[in-house]
Design brief:
The chain has helices spanning 3-13, 18-25, 29-37, 44-54, 58-63, 82-91, 94-117. By secondary structure, it is mostly helical. Helix 4 packs parallel to helix 7 (94-117). 7% of the residues are buried.
Length: 119
């Protein structure tokens, strides 16, 4: 299932029209059509908006799979000091750094939205 197909299923689950969806999220119907035809994909900020609006994870929206914490192997000592964060950050590729930055922005956005909604 593509990102567009997941978005379409979310729209249907809310019994919305595609036009209503576009209006609520500030998306042109032309862009939505381009997503459907595979001519383009939603940008990161739009994916964040869509995930927050439908209260789904960004992982699911992008990949169709939820993040599974049981697959992550962690060592507690990695989180022992701020210096470790700097060391870890310096080992990331530019793409990984961009992903972490986007995820942190998404997390903050979801937190603000939940506060607004009184959750």
């Amino acid at each position: 299932m593509s990102i567009y197909e997941r978005i379409e299923s979310l729209i249907k689950s809310k019994a919305m029209t595609k036009k209503e969806f576009c209006q609520r999220l500030g998306i042109s119907t032309g862009n939505l059509g381009d997503w459907k035809r595979g001519k383009s994909s939603p940008g990161t900020s739009k994916l964040i908006d869509i995930a927050a609006y439908f209260d789904v994870s960004l992982d699911w929206l992008m990949t169709g799979q939820e993040h599974r914490a049981d697959r992550i192997l962690e060592r507690k000592e990695i989180y022992a000091a701020e210096a470790d964060w700097v060391r870890l950050g310096s080992q990331l590729t530019d793409q990984e750094k961009a992903f972490v930055r986007e995820y942190l922005e998404f997390t903050e956005y979801r937190r603000r939205m939940k506060k607004k909604q009184g959750k």
